[in-house]
């Protein structure tokens, strides 16, 4: 990282880097074993890999565990571990063409199931993202380019429900409560769905210029009123309050380039981290009252290349994981 | 327990008198005794107090001249009553209060401050009294009204009351707090004087409070403790003064400070080591921050060491006024710069709330220490000039993930369907083979559709848009337009003999449809653009009467067209009986009379179609 001489370099033990042979996109931090981080490659070919890394704070190291690595067809669009630390099986889920579950054993990772919603006459569209319901861990919601969201019961391996969520491709999905999820789409809207009332959804935000796709969504698990979303080709992070639809609570506009990933703090209700093409990861604190010039971030980190992925897990609340290029870094908060 | 209470009350009453005397003698504004709460173990709450500050209105029952003592005590009583009625008033309806009682508007700011103090409760190590008790030392705070709320939680209150100096020292198991509206420089002799003169024993035996700091992370535990309470309401951080009784959210003073603001003075701090430090300080040192930008700290709080056995050591006279001296390395430095430091300390609180852990956060870049500091730089310290060069495609990888990965999968399916090879690692049942075939045919269908749309798009003037909806829209418009044109042309060409163009030979259906069908044909013929012929020259008239078929045709002549026409007619199971043809000016006119062979004859429409095909070749 070449910074100018004025910028103080972060101390080596605060930034732990992993160099991967290939570009990385998907990442997940394990709840059961907080030292385990799964990284998925992004190679535009069939053969992709998911590696499990072992993170050690004391020795400031991130090493791949060779035995816990598996092939994945085409890049995984998202990876998530089972959200409960005490789950009976150490599961990892990946999305791509289908939702796949993998079990992490001591010396290997075995595929558990491939959740394929296609009936014999249809094919199921590839998944852009998914979310694992923390309150109800047997539920996973997936979002797809065929405008639908599918809710799976992974214990039974069946579809609970499939909803046509939007008019265009759905790009991200996030659970709020056990039966409530939200999704964002190329049609530019954020909609909330309640599984108890599948007929109706609530639009809580629409992008100001019509049909600007919303690419990412994050629901604040500490304060379920708040959500954050990002738009395509935009450096803004829009903070929404579900109680006041259509009007964003705040727009965080301090990135110098488009925002790629957002993550709420796992243990604080008013902090959020974002990363973008400007190579920066910004930590924000949302004030109760915003100043006239907008909200400034609390602090920042410069990675030196476009940061594509950001993960902030409750398992490791003092570390933020980012991915840029072929590298993955753990940053101390 | 009555006797206990009574004796307690007696003690308090006594103490109050002592405080009254003390504060009057030094002419300070108030004295408060914080006692250990019976309800909350270890917490400090209001014990008794004496107010000696400015008074706005006097409300006395009798207009009797009472001496200063009496008035003062009375005033304090009245304030206490007011407080109690106010706090009661929240839970129960206001009891009727005597007219001579004070009401809020009668109070000066300082009195109001005094009154609000009655509501405060300090947990272990919390606030100025809490810290005093924990450390068992005198704490002298100058510029209290400008102090950081983490240090002195009532600083805003103090500001409104213009209380500038606050001193706390431990006494009788609690903490005595004295405050004044003047800025008084630290003078421990004063405290000593008060203790000896008014409060009794010269060497106040302060009971040893069990030291939470027995382990190194105690202070952070305090933070955790405090903040765990405080974190429950989400905006607690900002609303310190709103609640009457609440856990004041302030981390222990020894909270660590943000590294990036550790600047110049650090070196001073490191250098000036005072070897005299008693062991207690070492513990503190471990936990203390290495201080921060103490530029503005003419207002530091210095702590001296309340060693019970010995008399209070006179502090370094300069300590109060200057910042970094050796002794102060072991002192807490409280910085209250008007915003700059506030951020850091605030950040500390924030971090603590973020982490809820006992992590030692920061000790500063100058301090070679194993402990972790944040990877993040303070936003305010960023280099504004640094700019990352703009990438060609924003959000390139994200877009690829969302848009192209799906395509990759679809292509894969297509190919795997064709090659029938195992491309997927997960073995699949045969049903997937069927799926693949269906996928394949589905895809072909889609491709055909797309192709047709493309063609339609190229035929129809569409202004550049290529999406299906627009293409269809434009086609509709174009059709309507052409219909109109045709109608126009029809009306102008009525006299001409080419009416045959209009006539369709189809005996079925109303004329209107026929007209339209013909026009559609014509337009389709036009849109093909392959033919250069003028449509008015082409005509086919087919009349069927029973088994007799009369075909009259007109078209542009080309080689073998007649032959082809005859072939077509034969194919239609029509037995040609009479054929008349003429070629005038390149226009072929054919008239055929034929009979339907077989039982089922071709319909006029079929015949027409077949002949049209021939013509259009």
Automatic annotation (TrEMBL), chain A:
Source taxon at top rank: Eukaryota
UniProt WD repeat ranges: 163-203, 252-286
Keywords: Acetylation, Repeat, WD repeat
Protein name in UniProt: Protein TRANSPARENT TESTA GLABRA 1
Species of provenance: Sesamum indicum
Gene: LOC105160272
Automatic annotation (TrEMBL), chain B:
Gene Ontology biological-process annotations: regulation of primary metabolic process
UniProt GO MF annotations: protein dimerization activity
Annotated GO CC locations: nucleus
Low complexity bias spans: 287-299
Domain BHLH positions: 433-482
Entry-linked InterPro entries: bHLH-TF_ACT-like_plant, bHLH_dom, HLH_DNA-bd_sf, MYC/MYB_N
Region named Disordered: 272-324, 414-439, 489-526
PANTHER family (alphabetical): TRANSCRIPTION FACTOR EGL1, TRANSCRIPTION FACTOR TT8
Protein name (database record): Transcription factor EGL1-like
Organism: Sesamum indicum (Oriental sesame)
Classification lineage: Eukaryota, Viridiplantae, Streptophyta, Embryophyta, Tracheophyta
Gene name of the record: LOC105157923
């Amino acid at each position: 990282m070449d910074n100018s001489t004025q910028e103080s370099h972060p101390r080596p033990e605060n930034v732990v880097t992993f160099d991967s042979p290939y570009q990385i996109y998907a990442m997940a931090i394990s709840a059961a074993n907080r030292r385990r981080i799964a990284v998925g490659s992004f190679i535009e070919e069939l053969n992709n890999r998911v590696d499990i890394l072992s993170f050690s704070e004391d020795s400031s190291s991130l090493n791949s565990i060779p035995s816990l690595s598996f092939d994945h067809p085409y890049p995984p669009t998202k990876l998530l571990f089972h959200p409960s630390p005490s789950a009976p099986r150490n599961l990892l889920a990946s999305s791509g063409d289908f939702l796949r579950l993998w079990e992490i054993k001591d010396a290997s990772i075995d595929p558990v199931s491939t959740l394929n919603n296609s009936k014999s006459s249809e094919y199921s569209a590839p998944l852009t993202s998914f979310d694992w319901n923390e309150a109800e861990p047997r539920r996973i919601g997936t979002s797809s380019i065929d405008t639908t969201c599918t809710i799976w019961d992974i214990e039974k391996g069946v579809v609970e429900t499939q909803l046509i969520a939007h008019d265009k491709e759905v790009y991200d999905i996030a659970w709020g409560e056990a039966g409530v999820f939200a999704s964002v789409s190329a049609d530019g809207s954020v909609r909330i769905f309640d599984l108890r009332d599948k007929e109706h959804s609530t639009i809580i935000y629409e992008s100001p210029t019509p049909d600007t796709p919303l690419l990412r969504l994050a629901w604040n698990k500490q304060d379920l009123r708040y959500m954050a979303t990002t738009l395509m080709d935009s450096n803004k992070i829009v903070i929404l309050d579900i109680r006041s639809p259509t009007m964003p609570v705040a727009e965080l506009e301090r990135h110098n380039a488009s925002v790629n990933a957002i993550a709420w703090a796992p243990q604080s209700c008013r902090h959020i981290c974002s990363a973008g093409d400007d190579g920066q990861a910004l930590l924000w604190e949302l004030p109760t009252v915003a100043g006239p010039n907008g909200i400034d971030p609390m602090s920042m980190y410069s990675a030196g290349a476009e940061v594509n992925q950001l993960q902030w897990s409750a398992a490791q609340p003092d570390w933020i994981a980012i991915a840029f290029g072929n590298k993955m870094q753990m940053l101390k908060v | 327990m009555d006797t206990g209470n009574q004796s307690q009350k007696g003690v308090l009453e006594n103490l109050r008198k002592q405080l009254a005397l003390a504060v009057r003698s030094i002419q300070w504004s108030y004295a408060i005794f914080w006692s250990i709460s019976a309800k909350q173990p270890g917490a400090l709450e209001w014990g008794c107090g004496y107010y000696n500050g400015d008074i706005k209105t006097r409300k006395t029952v009798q207009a009797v001249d009472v001496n200063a003592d009496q008035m003062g005590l009375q005033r304090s009583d009245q304030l206490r009553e007011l407080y109690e009625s106010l706090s009661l008033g929240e839970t129960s309806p206001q009891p009727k209060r005597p007219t001579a009682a004070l009401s809020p508007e009668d109070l000066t700011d300082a009195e109001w401050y005094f009154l609000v103090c009655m509501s405060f409760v300090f947990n272990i190590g919390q606030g100025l009294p809490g810290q005093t008790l924990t450390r068992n030392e005198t704490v002298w705070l100058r510029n209290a009204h400008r102090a950081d709320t983490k240090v002195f939680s009532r600083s805003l209150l103090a500001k409104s009351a213009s209380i500038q100096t606050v001193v706390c020292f431990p006494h009788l198991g609690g903490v005595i707090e004295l405050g004044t509206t003047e800025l008084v420089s630290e003078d421990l002799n004063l405290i000593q004087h008060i203790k000896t003169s008014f409060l009794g024993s010269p060497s106040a035996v302060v009971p040893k409070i069990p030291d939470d700091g027995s382990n190194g992370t105690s202070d952070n535990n305090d933070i955790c403790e405090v903040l765990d309470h405080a974190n429950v309401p989400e905006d607690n951080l900002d609303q310190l003064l709103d609640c009457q009784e609440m856990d004041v959210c302030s981390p222990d003073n020894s909270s660590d400070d943000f590294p990036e603001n550790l600047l110049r003075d650090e070196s001073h701090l490191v250098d000036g080591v005072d070897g005299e430090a008693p062991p207690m300080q070492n513990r503190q040192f471990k936990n203390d921050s290495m201080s921060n930008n103490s530029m503005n700290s003419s207002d530091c709080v210095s702590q001296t060491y309340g060693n019970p056995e010995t008399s209070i050591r006179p502090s370094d006279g300069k300590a109060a006024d200057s910042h970094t001296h050796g002794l102060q390395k072991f002192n807490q430095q409280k910085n209250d710069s008007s915003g700059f430091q506030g951020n850091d300390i605030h950040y500390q609180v924030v971090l603590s709330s973020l982490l809820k852990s006992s992590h030692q956060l920061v000790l500063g870049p100058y301090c070679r220490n194993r402990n972790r500091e944040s990877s993040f730089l303070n936003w305010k310290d960023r280099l504004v000039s640094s700019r990352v060069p703009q990438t060609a495609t924003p959000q390139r990888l994200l877009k690829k993930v969302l848009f192209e990965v799906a395509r990759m999968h679809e292509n894969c399916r297509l190919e795997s369907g064709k090659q029938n090879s195992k491309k997927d690692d997960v073995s699949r049942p045969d049903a997937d083979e069927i799926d693949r075939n269906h996928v394949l045919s589905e895809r072909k269908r889609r491709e055909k559709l797309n192709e047709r749309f493309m063609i339609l798009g190229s035929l129809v003037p569409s202004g550049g848009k290529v999406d299906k909806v627009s293409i269809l829209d434009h086609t509709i418009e174009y059709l309507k337009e052409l219909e109109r044109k045709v109608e126009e042309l029809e009306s102008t060409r009525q006299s001409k003999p080419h009416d045959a163009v209009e006539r369709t030979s189809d005996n079925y259906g109303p004329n209107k449809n026929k007209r339209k069908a013909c026009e559609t044909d014509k337009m389709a013929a036009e849109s093909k653009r392959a033919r250069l012929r003028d449509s008015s020259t082409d005509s086919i008239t087919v009349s069927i009467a029973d088994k007799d078929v009369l075909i009259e045709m007109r078209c542009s002549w080309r080689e073998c067209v007649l032959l082809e026409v005859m072939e077509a007619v034969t194919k239609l199971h029509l037995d040609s009986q009479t054929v008349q043809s003429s070629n005038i000016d390149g226009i072929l006119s054919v008239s055929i009379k034929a009979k339907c062979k077989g039982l089922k004859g071709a319909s006029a429409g079929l015949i027409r179609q077949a002949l049209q095909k021939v013509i259009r070749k």
